[in-house]
């Protein structure tokens, strides 16, 4: 057992203990007693905020309880710091307004900010994003920017368990500048053509665990941004979607990197990518280091394994440049299944910063039940065990 694995097991165990301890809330605030109506038609935003205010100022651990029913919620910010731990137990469904403009220019629908010891348990959130997507697809330049469904900013010791997020305008769940986060048994659903509906986005955060999640969406199942450290993902079901992506990195010159990321025991089904690392083709101080992919199944997946360091959409802002993002110490182990692209392993690394320390072991990928191919450009690495397709490393 590696030191990194041991550390993650300790963190996982401590997160479960945190959840158990936080479950012993001394006081419960029912949103109905604050005037919330469970009919999905009367605005319940202020009753929810009032319940939060009572819980946040309590000197003892508290629970905010949302009974069964549908609750109309507009843009809502649940702000800390609070005096004690808070559990938000949701048995009902939070629904966004039908008019996507009501939350569309806020950037956020439900936002938790500067809160420590917060647990969100159960419940459904429905952002009703189809109207917003239609605006985006129409080419209308007057569409709002779109709202992320649920966001945690500058929060520590967070548990998100059993949540179902449906039809977010853009990203479903955002973890930004947080420490010690457990995301468990979360389901995310949006149509495969819905634009920019990433499932879970993590950036500038440390010690995040994502386990047992089912993600069907129109963009990355999980996207990993700059400043991510110690991210553990396990038992993820991804697809449709754009796979699990590190990046895009290197959009800015001075940008933090990504390191210590593990994905294991996961299945990709019909996704547009599998294991993807992507960077802009432009100078940058960013990096990707110590990444471990193991025990992965691909079921009819485009680009099961891909590193793309020549990302330059529409040839704008980066023509004829090379990526400064340094990619090293990436392990691919025990990955099998079917590719829907002939090139099942595509390593297109930067000519100015070649990928280094890439390890592949026991890979069995076929192309529609035929022999697949691999592509290598500016890469240094090693291989071990049975490798199909034949590797160019």
Structural account:
With 393 residues, this protein is mainly β. The chain contains four helices and 33 strands. The chain has helices spanning 3-22, 45-56, 101-104, 130-137, and strands at 27-30, 39-43, 62-66, 70-72, 76-79, 86-90, 93-95, 108-113, 116-121, 124-126, 148-153, 156-161, 164-166, 173-176, 179-184, 187-189, 200-203, 206-211, 214-216, 222-224, 229-234, 237-238, 244-249, 258-269, 275-280, 287-301, 305-311, 326-339, 343-348, 355-367, 370-371, 373-377, 379-388. The chain has a 22-stranded mixed β-sheet that branches. An eleven-stranded parallel β-sheet has the order 5-8-11-14-17-20-23-25-27-29-32. The longest helix is centred in the first third of the chain and has 20 residues, at 3-22. It holds the Pfam family Glyco_hydro_28. The active site is at residue 242. Belongs to the glycosyl hydrolase 28 family.
Give the SSE map.
Layout: H1 3-22, E1 27-30, E2 39-43, H2 45-56, E3 62-66, E4 70-72, E5 76-79, E6 86-90, E7 93-95, H3 101-104, E8 108-113, E9 116-121, E10 124-126, H4 130-137, E11 148-153, E12 156-161, E13 164-166, E14 173-176, E15 179-184, E16 187-189, E17 200-203, E18 206-211, E19 214-216, E20 222-224, E21 229-234, E22 237-238, E23 244-249, E24 258-269, E25 275-280, E26 287-301, E27 305-311, E28 326-339, E29 343-348, E30 355-367, E31 370-371, E32 373-377, E33 379-388
Parallel strand pairs: 1-3, 2-4, 3-6, 4-7, 5-8, 6-9, 7-10, 8-11, 9-12, 10-13, 11-14, 12-15, 13-16, 14-17, 15-18, 16-19, 17-20, 18-21, 19-22, 20-23, 21-24, 22-24, 23-25, 24-26, 25-27, 26-28, 27-29, 28-30, 29-32, 30-33
Antiparallel strand pairs: 30-31
């Amino acid at each position: 057992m590696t030191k990194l694995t041991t550390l993650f097991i300790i963190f996982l165990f401590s997160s479960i203990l945190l959840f158990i301890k936080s479950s012993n809330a001394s006081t419960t605030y029912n949103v109905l007693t604050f005037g919330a109506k469970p009919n999905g038609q009367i605005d319940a935003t202020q009753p929810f905020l009032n319940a939060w205010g009572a819980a946040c100022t309590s000197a003892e651990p508290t629970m905010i309880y949302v009974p069964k029913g549908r609750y109309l919620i507009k843009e809502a910010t649940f702000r800390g710091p609070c005096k004690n731990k808070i559990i938000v137990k949701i048995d009902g469904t939070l629904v966004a307004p039908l008019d996507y403009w009501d939350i569309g220019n806020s950037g956020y629908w439900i936002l938790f900010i500067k809160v420590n010891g917060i647990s969100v348990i159960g419940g459904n959130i429905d952002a009703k994003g189809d109207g917003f997507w239609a605006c985006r697809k129409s080419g209308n330049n007057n569409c709002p920017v779109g709202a992320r469904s649920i966001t945690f900013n500058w929060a520590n010791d967070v548990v998100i368990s059993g949540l179902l997020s449906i039809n977010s305008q853009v990203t479903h769940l955002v973890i930004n500048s947080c420490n010690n986060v457990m995301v468990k048994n979360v389901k995310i659903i949006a149509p495969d053509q819905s634009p920019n509906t990433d499932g879970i986005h993590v950036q500038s955060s440390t010690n995040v665990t994502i386990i047992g999640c089912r993600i069907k969406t129109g963009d990355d199942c999980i996207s990993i941004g700059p400043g991510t450290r110690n991210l553990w993902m396990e038992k993820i079901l991804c697809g449709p979607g754009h796979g699990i992506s590190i990046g895009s990195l290197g959009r800015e010159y001075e940008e933090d990197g990504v390191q210590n990321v593990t994905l294991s025991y996961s299945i990709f089904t019909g996704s547009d990518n599998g294991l993807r690392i992507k960077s802009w083709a432009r100078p940058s101080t960013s990096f990707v280091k110590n990444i471990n992919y193991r025990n992965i199944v691909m079921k009819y997946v485009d680009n099961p394994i891909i590193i793309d360091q020549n990302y330059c959409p529409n040839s704008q802002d980066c023509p004829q440049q090379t990526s400064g993002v340094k990619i090293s110490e990436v392990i691919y182990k025990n990955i099998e299944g079917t590719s829907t692209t002939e090139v099942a392993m595509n390593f297109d690394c930067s000519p100015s910063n070649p990928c280094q320390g890439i390890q592949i072991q026991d890979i069995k990928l076929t192309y529609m039940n035929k022999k697949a191919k691999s592509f290598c450009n500016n890469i240094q690495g090693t291989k071990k065990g049975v490798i199909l397709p034949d590797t160019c490393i």
